[in-house]
Amino acid sequence: MTHPLLLQTRRHFFRSSALSLAASYLNAASARHHEARIDHVIYLFQAGGPSQLELFDYKPVLARYDQQTAPPELLKGKRFAFMDTFSKEPPKMLGPRRTFQQAGSSGMHFSDLLPNIASVADELTMFHGVATDNFNHGPAKLFMNTGSVRAGRPSIGSWVTYGLGSESKDLPGFVVLQSGPRGPRSGAQLWSSGFLPTSFQGVPFRNTGDPILNLSTPKAVTPAQQRQTIDLIGDLNQLERQRTGDTEVDTRIAQYEMAFRMQTSGPELINFGQESQATLDMYGAKPGQPEHAFANNCLLARRLVERGVRFVQLYHTDWDHHDDLTKPLEQVTREVDQATAALIRDLKQRGLLDRTLVIWGGEFGRTPMGEVREKGKVGRNHHIDAYSLFMAGGGLKRGTIVGGTDELGFSPAHSPIHVHDIQATLLHLLGIDHKKLTFRYQGRDFRLTDVAGEIVHKALV
Amino acid sequence: MYLVLKILLLAALVLHAAAQTPDAQFFESEVRPILRANCWGCHSEANTTSGLSLQTRESILRGGNRGPAAAILLDATRHVGDLKMPPGKKLNEAQLATLEKWVNAGLPMPEGLLKSKRPGLNHWAYQPVRRPALPEVSNGSWVRNPIDRFILARLEAARIAPAPEAGRVALLRRLSLDLTGLPPTMAELKAFLADSSPNAYEKQVDRLLASPHYGERWGRHWLDVAHYADSDGYTIDSPRDIWMYRDWVIDAVNRDMPFDRFVIEQFAGDLLPEPTTSQLIATGFHRNTTSNFEGGIDFEQYRVEAVADRLATTGAAFLGLTVGCARCHDHKYDPISQREYYQLFAYLNNTDEVDKEADRKLFNKPFLELGTDAEKAEFAVWQQKIIVAEERMRKRLETYSGDPKKDETLVNIEKELSLLRANKPKLPRTMIMRDLPAPRPAYIHLMGDFTRKGSPVSPGTPSFLPFPKNKAGTRLALAEWLMDPEHPLTSRVTVNRIWQTYFGRGIVETENDFGTQGDKPTHPELLDWLALEFREKGWSQKALHRLIVTSAAYRQSSNLRSEDPENKLFSRQNRLRLDAESIRDASLVASGLLAPKVGGPSVYPPLPAGVYQVTQVRREWKTSTGEDRYRRGMYTFFQRSAPHPSLVVFDAPDSTIACTRRNRSNTPLQALTQLNDEGAYEWAEALARRMTAAASSDEDRLSTGFELALNRQPRPEESTRLLRFVRQQRDSQLDPWPSVARALLNLDEFLTRP
Questions:
Q1: CB-CB under 8 Å, B676 with A216
Q2: What is the model's pTM?
Q3: HEC string for B570-613
Q4: Distance between B1 CA and the closest CA of chain A, angstroms
């Protein structure tokens, strides 16, 4: 099942025919380097930097140092966000603010904020001690998504759909869903196709109105008229094709047909009418209610994957808890805990989890030191050396903890798992060798993992 | 000991001189691994810690800050004396013995050790541009100007005849779209068709080159390279003041400012003697870098990124080189060392822009302020109020976790902010370049990391290219170097990019990589001939455009031919899907809605609800009314984190880095946009009104629609099909004309330059 040549051909195709980038959208040919364990990815991006120390990475020793000034050797040579204020006075260590319990056969830790996710512990592969490169939200999000802190590189979903195509004939291969009080920082650059053709760009679905921009026929146009108009355009374009001999016209005719199919499949996709009440309740989904947007999006993600969409990415804001680890954190965990667990359970009961990867995590974690911005409240600053994320799905060792951190949760206990390693592992599960999935641009073969990335074999079956 | 060694060394050198590189193999197999593993990390050509490079024989003999290094090398590695090397470790005895043997033998190492590691010095693109002889051709009657000789010679060698000339309608449509980005009006077309003079086509070329829309079209191509946008990018992505730069470009292109002047003013207008306002505005070119104002950042990091972006833009736009590859290490394929990268970096490193938290409130300084003192003072007060309100909002958002729409404090701040924004005092200003009084020290950044400073560097150009005549080390010197008549790259890269716009593909297909990894030119002599013409005709862009579009090669039909399916030989024209902006512009022309106003602040045509919400800071898109609703696509406000979807969907660049060629994708989202978008439907309705107003019979209305949208009459088989559609609509009691108009604006022919 190795088809590196196919990839090569594809790359050549894109490079050599700037005039005709069209076929890509229709081309669902799989170009895998080795046998794939999964076909789909649902990436639950938790934007803002969830505090691993209040969620997954239980550090009882840190509690003993609570309110003690952080030793200078711990901070030596380290750079943090808000350097001027954060380290004006040496920050104090901050013990875990939540209570923890173990769950599942591996004894994975979860705080009281995540009872539902804890209940699917045996499905999860937990990564501790994940390290990233940049401590500011925008660049760090770009790094997690594109492997670079600067905008302009293709996002992970674009790379995957570029490499594998889409299985869906009437939906885009890479869909982006958003929830939370504000948009993720860096916006559309996070799902940009960069220098890859724009047909691999993430298509943001909207929470109100049409799920896809311009999916609805204009008000004055009836459905029959729309069909007849597209037929007319197709017939006239066919004459143009005969006159010019240009195969690009064939592609355009096909794209208008696909647009029409999307107009039908789109509304069907977002109509939860066929879902049972039990399913809706399991997710906590309430269509049309913004407070339930994350739950609605999780259910939508399952429906997208069922329809062959390759890569679904959910962004949920906002986890940036600099000055309070109580109510704001309770609120956001309440928004995501139930639906995340429901998604995993639902995928499993439908037999989809074996061929899908669910990944849950943010752009970085938070410091074991506290941050005080307002009297009487305490939060945590951005921390890039050791954070946590989890995965569930095909090809992974389920109910397993990979990596770990020191007693204070400051540094990885062993060798860190770098963001590029996570990206390499994700591609590996899809049957893609991260070193071979390249695109030549400005004289260089670029890849998602830049010049780094080691597959985290410990996490794999 | 020193003395003895020195004598030994001298003796060895004499011997060495007599027998050149007696033992280069010994160096390769024994010495090089030791130096590479232990020394070159800090003492290389790229990183001369303590002034010392151990990478060439000359540099070892010359030595570093402590003087000639051969003897020091032995002492330091043996830990004799105060200097102990490598730091924190001692070489083993075998290694020490190897080094001693090597030093005592007079440092034999291959000549040009570094040069041999510098790839591609003989590469075609680095050689001087030379005027080629015009090739002989058999079919001389086809030739309209020298371009055609180069094209035809290759075609004749391949025994392929050129394609016939395109029809007159297609020719004028092509020419108008290429020169102005707008299709011709029916009046323009009729004038052309009625003109039977032999130079009728050339008259159209002159007319279009004199149109103010020419500057818009070719200005927009340049703005792709400059990666112009109306907002900062990154997290906060605030609007910025820089549209005056955009207008400067349009104006300079319209006035046919010579290209060398055009480049020098944009690079370094501020450094010219007594710069004019216009020359200062021009320097906005290098201010189109993104700027980060997220809380908690290290400003120096993003300033360095901006300088790196300036250098990457310079590389892509003028040198056609991937200089960015040398940011972390010596370029693997082209002869640019990491040191040379930072020498170029040093030219662009001195702008007085924000580099520390304390200056956060100075935003995108430096600006050119164009108001009176009173206006400036009023503006400063206003700006301070915005800053305070935004800070309050940010704080509140960070602490408040409920629905922001329901929070009274937030709602009030929003109200206050929108009131403030609505009453922004008029103070025209624009981002420009202005240098610090003394240059910022520049260093090699080890592994490209700005926190790891290596050796200091001064401005300098890569050694494989001609040296700059102006040694000043300023941006001006760099610009003059780029435009130096002896520079082999700038003219080639520029004419290639212009050629690419007309044919869809450059003579060098990799238009941004003329290095060893790029494609070779398909017509190298033509490339050089054009480059020389361009330079010798006073760098006139209009003259170059006239030359290309009056060639027989350009005027060929674009219908596909089996003889040369990929059209590598330019044996025909290429059909090219219109750029994003031109699709809007052509639709506005067909519908009669276009507001032809040139320049001014960016505008806000209708935007589908919800698009703007992806930005982190919620902003209001105040939809323009009146003529600003119908301006050309290039004036649509470009918000980097949420650009207008109708631009993005048709491959407008995202403006984060220099774009030297746009993709031309073909997707269902494009179909949905041109079919269903609110704006697109408005155009269709307007076109339908023009069709029904112009005539009463179905046939006449159809022919009006075709003329307005496609500049031609419907063919019989098209009329038959359309009349069937019209009847179908009437049978359903529907007005057929908006649907007919909508279909016309969605035809492949409408969306494509013929």
A1: yes
A2: 0.80
A3: CCCCCCEECCHHHHHHHHHHHHCCCCCCCCCCCECCCCCCCHHH
A4: 41
